[in-house]
Design a protein that fits this description.
Layout lengths: L2 H14 L15 H12 L3 H5 L9 H11 L2 H18 L8 H14 L5 H7 L20 H12 L1
Helix pairs in contact: 1-4, 2-5, 6-8
């Protein structure tokens, strides 16, 4: 997306919420709907008090404006990512018992495919190949699983 498109979708989101625009933004390509879900789940935990992180869950222009500002901020994207992981491991405590690479695979699948659903359902999605690099996909387009991309970069970082 170029600057004009990004500005337009941000304005639409601020006015109408995710019904107006739900776009990926920032370093971690987070969508407002993802962040709104995270904020709702976070506010149901005791962690909001422990970490002093609170969110306005109203559907107001001001709440949407703050969400866009946070999505544009790399530090806030890191906070949202940490919240996602904390909530994910709380929801699926058995994940901590998996090998590191399986944890990376599971977390990346949940991040890209939504972490609603059962443990088995999320695991079964990890091999699905959706991502491609073609401008316009064709039947011959090579597709990749997000989880395999995450595992590739995890192995490089070791």
């Amino acid at each position: 997306m170029d600057f004009m498109e990004t500005t337009a979708v941000k304005a639409l989101y601020q006015q109408k919420g995710v019904k107006g625009a739900d776009f990926s933004i920032g370093r971690f390509q987070m969508k407002p709907s993802f962040v709104e879900d995270l904020e709702r789940q976070w506010m149901r935990t005791e962690w909001r008090h422990e970490y002093g992180i609170y969110f306005d869950l109203s559907e107001t222009l001001e709440a949407h404006r703050i969400c866009v500002l946070r999505l544009d901020d790399r530090n806030w994207q890191c906070i949202y990512l940490a919240m996602f992981l904390k909530l994910l491991y709380r929801r699926f405590p058995e994940l901590a018992e998996e090998e590191d690479i399986e944890q990376v695979r599971f977390c990346s699948t949940a991040y890209n495919a939504s972490f609603y659903g059962t443990y088995e359902r999320i695991r079964s999605k990890s091999a699905r190949r959706f991502y491609h690099t073609d401008f316009i996909p064709t039947p011959g387009t090579k597709r990749y699983a997000y989880s395999e991309i995450a595992v590739f970069y995890y192995k490089i970082a070791l």
